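Morning. Coffee machine broken again, so started the prediction first thing and wrote up yesterday's gels while waiting. Chain of 86 residues, entered below exactly as on the submission form.
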Amino acid sequence: MTKKISPAFIKAAEIRLAKRDYGGIIDYFPFGDKSFIQMIHVKTKRLINLESTGGKPINESRLDNLLDLINYASYYYEWLKGELNE
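Came back before lunch.
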């Protein structure tokens, strides 16, 4: 069996690279753990709301939110490891 990287991870990485003009990413998480967890919570809550209402999103789709979750989780992982230096 050939192992490959998930297309979702590739797309998330592309988005992360494209958003480098936001400035230092660490500035978006000024409260450390709480900031990372809050953003993960917000995106998860959005997914729960989209699923429970069955409605079509006006802005971000479920796929958009999942990509954001991948990126926020990766930022948090890197921050915990002391490797986040964007």
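The mean pLDDT is 88. Going to sketch it on the whiteboard this afternoon.
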